[in-house]
Amino acid sequence: MTIGREEAMPTPDMLDDNKEHSLILIKPDGYMRGLTGEVLARIERKGFKLVGLKIKKASVALLTEHYVEHKEKHFFSSLLEYMTSGPIVSVVVEGDRVIESLRTLMGATNPVLAAPGTIRGDLGRDWGTSNVENIVHGSDSPESAAREIALWFPELIED
Ligand code: DAT
Ligand code: MG
């Protein structure tokens, strides 16, 4: 399935408030294993539109904000170590019910348990580290998506 050319371009300077968006991260393990194209291809083949894309090593400050809900968890410091171990590809994806659709496409948090056919189920595994290395992040609700997009792509948000 492809989206029409008219619909696909140009990418906007500002996000359209009337459309649903999700923040996807290709985490350092995904980036370093060369899976960026594979993940983006799956999202595009599903029929969604990429409207923001960048590659950067994220700061501890940004990641602490991003994962604020996990700040008190026992795995928080190793999560930060994992997420700063290499570049992250951050992506804003647009489309109807995109948040829920991409959670389904990603699969369960633990790649050992994620169903085959999902990104984590097909491409992830346990590497014998203390981290759950699961290739991708995807926003889990409209509130999370708005908060996360404002953190990673403030330039796409009208103030
Ligand atoms: P998800 O990424 O599926 O939304 P989450 O929000 O519960 O999962 O956790 C965020 C990330 O933290 C997850 O992608 C990997 C890491 N993580 C979660 N549970 C963990 C655990 N028990 N031990 C180590 N890392 C964990
Ligand atoms: Mg989460």
SSE topology:
Elements: H1 5-8, E1 21-26, H2 28-32, H3 36-45, E2 49-56, H4 60-66, H5 76-83, E3 88-94, H6 98-106, H7 119-123, E4 136-138, H8 142-152
Antiparallel strand pairs: 1-3, 1-4, 2-3
The protein binds 2'-deoxyadenosine-5'-diphosphate and magnesium ion.
Residues 70, 75, 79, 109, 131-132, 134, 137, 140 line the site of 2'-deoxyadenosine-5'-diphosphate.
Q: Could you give a short description of this structure?
A:
This protein is of the alpha+beta class and 159 residues long.
Distance between the ends: 35 Å
Element order: H for helix, E for strand: HEHHEHHEHHEH
Count of distinct strands:
4
The overall average pLDDT, rounded, is: 94
Strand content: 15-25%
Q: Could you estimate the helical fraction of the residues in percent?
A: 25-40%
Based on Cα principal axes, name the global outline.
globular
What structural category arises from helix and sheet content? alpha+beta
Say which molecules are bound, naming each kind only once.
Answer: 2'-deoxyadenosine-5'-diphosphate, magnesium ion
- Major beta sheet summary: 4 strands, antiparallel
Q: What Rg do the Cα atoms give? A: 15 Å
Strand order of the largest sheet: 2-3-1-4
Number of helices: 8
The unreliable regions are none
Model description:
The termini are far apart. The radius of gyration is 15 Å and the shape is globular. The mean pLDDT is 94. It contains 8 helices and 4 strands; from the N terminus they run αβααβααβααβα. The chain has helices at 5-8, 28-32, 36-45, 60-66, 76-83, 98-106, 119-123, 142-152; strands at residues 21-26, 49-56, 88-94, 136-138. It has a 4-stranded antiparallel β-sheet. The protein is an alpha+beta fold. The structure holds 2'-deoxyadenosine-5'-diphosphate and magnesium ion (MG). Residues 70, 75, 79, 109, 131-132, 134, 137, 140 line the site of 2'-deoxyadenosine-5'-diphosphate.
